[in-house]
Structure formats: structure tokens, C-alpha cells
Amino acid sequence: MFPFKTALNASTLFPFELDVIQQIEITKQAGYDGIELWIRDIETYLEKGGSIQTIQAALKRNDLVLINAIAFFKWADEDQETREAAFKQVEEEMELLASLGCLSIAAPPFGEVKSVTLDEMAQHFDRLVTLGRKIGVEPLLEFWGKSPQLSTLEQAQLVLEKLQVRNAKLLLDPFHMYIGGSNFANLQSLQANQIGIVHVNDYPPSPPKDELEDADRVFPGEGISNTFAIGNALAEIGYKDYLSLELFITDYKNKSALEVAQHGLNTLKSAYVG
């Protein structure tokens, strides 16, 4: 029996240029439990005359959970003025997300962070989590493999340890673990309640990992990642929440959006349980 919930990150469907309602409908038709939407897509839909109520209705009609949103705000930037602007931005974005019933928002190390210490990152993330919980949207600490700071699971774990707030959560991604040099064995040192969402994907044997880009990601089980070991480690620590397929493939040849989403769900389930 598959022990996890499943979700689709809307990035996987970007080549089809769907609006958020279409993304929701395809995700449900393919059989996922949840969806991750991008703030830019939500805002574009609203700017073109769509409404929050229509998005709410689409989620309800399709019995789909909006588990997370992808946004880019410089919450940890080394420049104070930039950080303040970022907190103003994310406050507005989280209020919008809260109106949609969104559970969380990704918080990667976006911006100028090279000179920012992990202690400083912990202070800024404390502030972000406090703000998010006041609004009702949980920020998830995400590390990026190519970031000059907060690039590994180990660094993200250190940030969690330094926080004043309790029960903060990580967003995990095997692609970023691989290119950043994280130790996959350290997944077993996590507690299930420290994980908000796990992005799933795979990566090819070439180009070398220091040359890999997001668009090089492939479907789970179609690359060299030990997806079964990752799934087993997550199951062993008691994680039962969302595995969310996040790809940035630019051309799916002749496949339709629904075919891509269905194929993704099939590969996710088979790759992560062996």
C-alpha cells in the first residue's frame, strides 16, 4: 500500500500554459490528492478577470487540497531594506493564499544570501513563521543546491535547531539534495513532523551535477536517484504526508497535459515504493 499522499506542482504543467482552474482540473483528473500553485499564476488569473471565489469553488468541486504555494520573496536577503520589502510582499501573498485555504508557502534562499549566517537566517525565518502562523499559512524552509548559503539538508537542519518558534518545517527536494551535496542518509535523522512537503523528481547521469539545471529533471525512476531508498527512509520515520511531483521539462513531445500528469503519478508511486 502506498503510504504517502500525492500532489502535483503546477510547474510540471507549465509547457501547456494552463490557467489555475485548468491546472486544478487536470490535477484532479489525473488522480492526485493535492496541488501546489504558483503565486504568479494565481495573480495572472485574477488580473485577467478571474476571482478568488472561482478558485475556491474549483478546489472544492474537485476535492483538491491546495497544499502549498510557490513564491519568490527575499526574506533572508543581506540588505535590510530588501528584507523589509520582502516581508511586506509575502504578507500580502499569504493573506491571498489564506483566503484560498492554502496550507503553506515555500521559503527558499532567494536573493543575496552569500554573507548571511545561519544564525541570521534563523532570526529571519523565526519572523517569517510567526507572521505566517498569524495569517494561517505555514512557511516551509527550503534549501537550494546552488545557493551560496542554505544549500544542503544539513544547513537547513541547523537553522531549524536555532529557531525560537516550535515545530517549524522543511521542504525537501532530492534534486537540490543531489546538486548541493546533501547526505541522503540524513533523511533518517529527521522527525516526520519536521517535514512539510517532499518534492519528488529524478535527475539524469549527465550533465555533471554542477551543470544540472531545473529543466534537466526527469520523472521519478527515470534517472539515477535512489528513489526507493528515499521513500523507504521517509516511511521509516513515519512521514505520511505529501510527495509532490515538481518538474520543469519544457517539451513533453506529443503528450497532453493529462497524460503528463497521469504518467507523473504512476512514476511517483512506482519509484517511491519499489
Folded structure, characterized:
The longest helix has 20 residues, at about 80-100. The N and C termini lie close together (about 10 Å). This protein has an 8-stranded parallel beta sheet. It is built from 9 helices and 8 strands. It is globular, with a radius of gyration of 18 Å. With about 270 residues, the chain is an alpha/beta fold.
Q: Summary?
A:
By secondary structure, the protein is α/β, with parallel strands linked by helices.
- Note the gap between the termini: 11 Å
Rg, please?
18 Å
Mean pLDDT: 97
Low-confidence stretches: none
Largest beta sheet: strand ordering: 3-2-1-8-7-6-5-4
H/E topology pattern: EHEHHEHEHEHEHEHEH
Continuous helix count: 9
Number of strands: 8
Major β-sheet profile:
8 strands, parallel
Shape: globular
Question: What percentage of the residues does DSSP assign to strands (E)?
Answer: 5-15%
Name the structural class.
alpha/beta
Helix content: 40-55%
Notable features of this structure?
9 helices, alpha/beta, 274 residues, eight-stranded parallel β-sheet
